[in-house]
Input
Amino acid sequence: MEYRHFIGNAWRAGDNGESLDVIDPSTGEPFAAIARGNAADIDVAVSAARNAMGEALDGPWAKLSPVERANLLFAYAAAVLENADELAQLEARDTGKALKTARTDAAVLARYLQYYAGCVDKLHGETLPYTTGFTVLTVREPIGVTGHIIPWNYPMQIYGRSVGASLAAGNACVVKPAEDASLSILRLAEIAADIGFPAGAINVVTGLGSEAGAALSANEGIGHISFTGSTATGALVGRTAAERHCPSVLELGGKSPQLVFDDADLDEALPVILNAIIQNAGQTCSAGSRLLVQRGIYETVIERLTQRFEALRSGPPAMDLDTGPLVNAKQQARVRSMVEQAEGEGIRVAARGKIAVEASRNGFFHEAVLFRDVPPQSRIAQEEVFGPVLAVMPFDDEAEAVKLANGTNYGLVAGVWTRDGSRGLRLARKLQAGQVFVNNYGAGGGVELPFGGVKASGHGREKGFEALYGFTSLKTIAIRHG
Ligand code: NAP
Ligand code: MG
Output
């Protein structure tokens, strides 16, 4: 199967006629191809989106009333649910993620679309008290055309939170999916066209990040750019956007800690802690990849996690084991090298999972690894691995726990496990993170909960009502009437 771009509600051949292989991570074999988009393709997509908006917000998309826009988004959510199985199969084949994870992704995407559909007619400005004789009001206007650079780890969810919110705010979108995860996004654009989204409201240009992605972030017609991915690429995208005064939301991953105190309910905590690093084979921006454990229960926690890690198995999506393969050979090599480096530094492996015998030797599998007594300054404690690798370290008291937790460049999510309610709240205020969970850890949280980073984890907020503001331009209108 050879896929083209999806622009203006139609499949469209790329400018250069070139394509890229789509690889099945379970086997390392190509099974399809996507178009290798360039700046000319991005121009065509941006023009289609501009036409949907119209010169004076009179285009076929912009002129819809809020309730018509909301109804289309509700219909989109329903169509995603109707096609959820097909979308999940496509995603699992393309990215290697376990089928159950891909099914969850489709369901969460539908939730985002429902949530933002419900927000459309509740997104409004205010009237402001000002000098006598004036009436002042604010209106929230669409920005115009927004750009969305989507990574390969949760393509459908990230499409939902970013494209869903932008459409709800009334913008038209140009999407550049990751080259390793374009198929679900192309299908989603096609589904939108089928259910009646006007041409140009949603456009997808596939290709390489350094080509199509860079062209999208540099395009003069793009009024806002959303990016999720690595810190280094995020800085590049943010800088390019800033040069033409284009606002950006950057969600750049993390090294998120969970703090487990002596008084924690371990029966509650351990399954959540395990899932937070195993889900999607650890390829989750908000993965709980550092575990800080108070000394009194340290050996107990290590022992119980060791049993669980030793039972973990990785295999192809269809087997629906604990983890699928990693997304590509580059990620597999990265995880391997970080694990090997840590072992070379003498950091102790407490447990390893297994790769299923049925798994192809050419697939990009990596077993789960549990490291113990990890020095806080080591690479495995400081850098995002993006694999099923958990770094555990002990602490003595609250002050040390906070210092360790805040002791990386990142700040996306944090978790605190304690039966002491005051301590939970106290620490939630001290931890440097965009989201803090007490006695729970939802990688990413619900669609309703604002999400995003501090420090090298990025800036701006996605999810929840908060995200909508970022996709609007606030205008203040001051009327002197005497
Ligand atoms: P990446 O380079 O940051 O890629 C993320 C997205 O940006 C992809 O859609 C990519 O497209 C695109 N991109 C790449 N270069 C670009 C450029 N110059 N201009 C505009 N867009 C560009 O990440 P990666 O290389 O796939 O993964 C490396 C590491 O990044 C991972 O190990 C992980 O630590 C981190 N990461 C984090 C997240 C997250 O959720 N926060 C997601 C993915 C990766 P192509 O893939 O087509 O090149
Ligand atoms: Mg692939």
Q: What stands out?
A: The longest strand covers residues 134-142. DSSP finds 15 helices and 22 strands in the chain. The chain has a mean pLDDT of 97. Residues 257-446 form a domain with the Aldehyde Dehydrogenase; Chain A, domain 2 fold (CATH 3.40.309.10).
